[in-house]
Amino acid sequence: MTRLSAGLIWLALGCAIAVPFAIAATSPLLAWRQPVYIAAGLAGVVALALMLLQPLLAGGHLPGLPAPRGRRLHRLAGILLIAAVVVHVAGLWVTSPPDVIDALLFVSPTPFSDWGVIAMWALFAAGLLAALHRWSRLRPRIFRLAHTATVCVAVAGSIAHALLIEGTMGDVSKAVLCVLVVLALARTIAGLRTWTLLRRRRA
Predict the structure, then answer these.
(1) 138 Cβ contact partners less than 8 Å away, ≥ 6 residues apart
(2) Total-model pTM
(3) Is-contact 166 151, C-beta < 8 A?
(4) Is the pLDDT reported for residue 36 higher than 90?
(5) How far apart (Å, rounded) are the C-alpha atoms in residues 192 and 173?
(6) Residue 62 phi/psi, 5° resolution?
(7) 143 has pLDDT over 60
């Protein structure tokens, strides 16, 4: 890959992340909102952006990043992703505890809340699997299957959550970011040797 191609990939990735964040940060819907609410909303945007980076790091698809460094950054980005979700939920709790309670109990009248909670618990499960992997007795293939499955649920729930909200992110930029997240995840899953081994065993 040439330097020009690598630079264009990094530029496209930066735009895919920066544009939705800039639109959300300058949205008129944030006018007169409390700082805690603004921080919670922007944390959600950061979380979605990190979901784009995660599979790219895990699959080694970013130019100029050796595989070992990419995996280390994947773990770091995972921690940041969970932290962003915690900030997102905690900020919403501070501004409106009843709404968060309704969402956690799946009695909220807004469908996007259910998807957000499903995505949150799936993400926590994926993070817990990754954290305990070194000390668990799970075989690498089983771990990868379980981790990938929970990640897929987290991504699907997050995208449904984001698309159903009429919030600060621009509709077009939000949709583009969601599509890129799906494509990045699909590209990485397709390259995992686990699925190849699984198909061979079934054959």
Answers:
(1) 146
(2) 0.90
(3) no
(4) yes
(5) 29
(6) -95, 125
(7) yes
In terms of Cα–Cα distance, which of 114, 190, 201, 111 is closest to 148? Answer: 190
Could you write out the DSSP letters of every residue in 30-73? GTT--HHHHHHHHHHHHHHHHHHHHHHHHHT-STT--HHHHHHH
Burial (CB count <10 Å: 0-12, 13-18, 19+), residue 121: middle
Report the C-alpha gap between 44 and 47 in whole angstroms.
5
CA distances to 60, 172, 196 from 187, rounded to whole Å, are 11, 22, 14
With cut-offs at 50, 70 and 90, classify the pLDDT of residue 124. Answer: very high
**φ and ψ of 135, to 5 deg:** -100, -5
CA distance 60 to 85: 24
Phi-psi region of 33 (alpha: psi -120 to 50; beta: other; left: phi over 0): beta
Query: Would you say 114 and 103 are in contact if contact means Cβ atoms under 8 Å apart?
Result: yes
CA dihedral 40, 155, 98, 80 (to 10 degrees): -40
- Tokens representing 26? 């300058």
Residue where the block lists tokens 């950054």: 73
Specify whether the CB–CB gap between 86 and 40 falls below 8 A: no
In this predicted structure, what is the pLDDT of residue 73? Answer: 95
